[in-house]
Q: What sequence folds into this?
């Protein structure tokens, strides 16, 4: 794990988040959802969950800058089609004043490096259809739809339970 | 766990797969990908992986009928927005001669019951755009796109690593 956090350079070079980063990451996640008018349980609940998740094997995060100006939050799960885990990029966020300056790209590069170190063969992300900037960003970074050869897209669907 | 596998009735009532079902499930997964001309590492490799995965906490499967005529393969991962895990329906398959007879629907009902027992608040699935029958099937079972209120869809993207 000697290479963690040294994958890219620059003023906001991403580093792997430690459990102690849970408070800062929780605040950023809360800001993220607040910006996009999405419900959030609040920074403290998020930080509590992150303390547990970041200590476990199925979640990791990358933070850009100190104090952090952006982050990538990633979860791993097993998949029968691959020998190693599959990684899902759950959230990628850069604070508004620093967008368009390569922070997101450096987070993706650091994510790929961290994923490779964990034996990951596939990284996934779900993008809302109206978010065409995000779609372009991920296309530029090698992400493709369901059947790249045929040019087909794939849809992400979900169903909430109970409540 | 006393209710596992008794969620729905009928001749092909789904039951939770045990580790000993890995060989049968591996064969069905292989048949699934062969039918859709998708690469497969072969039934033996799949069975070996399933023996490991089904013994762990992050994968479960439901089998319909004995011998099985269909299955649902599901993986769990943590997610910071929920107290419990999120479930992804990786694969849902019914053998060709028995399609259109409710086996898939009974697998979804059993999946929801099994997910609720595990504290799951969200079930996800990714559907290729040309597969309109699957999209209709999941819509009928309460699955929605990225922003259900706005009627927006969400895309699933992925990037393979290494080679």
A:
């Amino acid at each position: 794990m000697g290479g963690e956090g040294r994958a890219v350079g620059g003023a906001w070079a991403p580093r792997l988040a430690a459990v102690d980063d849970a408070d800062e990451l929780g605040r950023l996640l809360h800001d993220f959802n607040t910006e996009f008018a999405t419900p959030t349980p609040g920074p403290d609940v998020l930080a509590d969950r992150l303390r547990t998740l970041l200590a476990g094997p199925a979640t990791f995060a990358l933070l850009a800058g100190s104090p952090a100006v952006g982050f990538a939050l990633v979860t791993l799960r097993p998949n029968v089609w691959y020998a190693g885990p599959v990684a899902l990029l759950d959230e990628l966020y850069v604070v508004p004043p620093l967008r368009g300056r390569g922070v997101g790209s450096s987070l993706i590069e650091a994510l790929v490096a961290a994923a490779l170190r964990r034996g990951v063969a596939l990284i996934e992300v779900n993008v809302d259809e109206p978010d065409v900037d995000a779609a372009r960003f991920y296309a530029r970074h090698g992400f493709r739809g369901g059947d790249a050869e045929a040019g087909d897209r794939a849809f992400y669907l979900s169903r909430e339970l109970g409540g």
Notes: The first strand of chain A starts at residue 14 and ends at 16. Chain A touches chain B through 59 residues (CB under 8 Å).
